[in-house]
């Protein structure tokens, strides 16, 4: 078969096109392989990143759990501290109330002490009045009858040879002179001595005389006053019971009362005074 020239040219063109297609296919295949390799690498990279993300996610979850636990612990501690703060506020409130109460009680106590101080002044005035009446002869005369002389110091101007006897055997628990009042806590002056005899013990007349007073004297309680004449009297306070009456003559050493703790007293004892012309003096210098 004889080919025409046009056909030969067309054939050659077709062959050339085929070669071009084949070459293009090879290029595409190479490009596809390269692309596939890149895709594989990217896939691996993505897988690694996903693994990292998973690990990070687990770490985040773990951190979240830790944060939740820390938050719970914080809330528990916060509640505890709040509870302690409430306790402190409560204690502070109690403290304020206690201070206020103590202040009120202190003011009340100061008022009572003031009343007692005023009362004590009234008591001394009452005593002075009683001794004035005795020395002015309103409650009977004195008795200068003699008695045994057992030593001791006499009172100047007293014609009696009879000395004074301690009204009890107890030790002196409170001396004559300046002191802090055991009841009021105020500074004052103790006008006699206190003898620490037990409750119910006998109280003896220090010297012969006439009972000038037997009764209750405010702070002194059950009290006996004996007039010994010449402006001299003895007083016996805080007795539980009086055994003599006004106008009765008593002998030195005779039981005139029993020890007690009546009136303003902190315990059983004999409060003993010697008065000369109404003025108190230290009785221990005459025994």
From TrEMBL:
Alphabetical UniProt keywords: Coiled coil
CDD domains: M23_peptidase (cd12797)
Region spans: Disordered: 132-191
Compositionally biased region (Gly residues): 138-155
Pfam families given in the database record: Peptidase_M23
GO molecular function: metalloendopeptidase activity
Organism: Clostridium sartagoforme AAU1
Record-given protein name: Peptidase, M23/M37 family protein
Segments forming domain M23ase beta-sheet core: 189-283
Sections of the chain in a coiled coil: 25-73
InterPro entries in the record: Cell_wall_metabolism_enzyme, Dup_hybrid_motif, M23ase_b-sheet_dom
Superkingdom of origin: Bacteria
